[in-house]
Fold this sequence. Notes:
This protein has 153 residues and is mainly α.
Amino acid sequence: MTSSVTYEQDVIAWANEQARRLRAGEFDQLDIEHLAEEIEDVGKSEQRELASRMAILLMHLLKWSYQPARRGRSWDATIRIQRQSIERRLQRTPSLKHSLNESDWWEDVWADARALAIQETGLTDFPPHCPWSLAAILDLQWLPTEHVTKEKP
């Protein structure tokens, strides 16, 4: 492969050069190994974004549940925005839905949500597992009214 810029030197310039070569049909000039890694990273990035948004949503649902006196428009807006963003992401990338059925994914997301809630509230008595169903979590109208239920996603 002959390239004016390598992957290690400048990934953006490298990506633009690879795109140009793809469009020009210069397949023998492509950096196949790095292209494959970048394509895989796109999927991982989408998964990280979904997990991050879900953790933020769950953290705010925990705060809503455990700190009723502090409920306000800001928390309500954050919950609504995260739900809408998750819904859009799942519509644009339907294959992400499989993550919502993986127990390991939920354990990681719940651990992140708990850690964020502990950091923001100073409380430590959050349940070890997500107490709400996936349907409730994603329901645009639902908000927890008590600490926990026995449901799991």
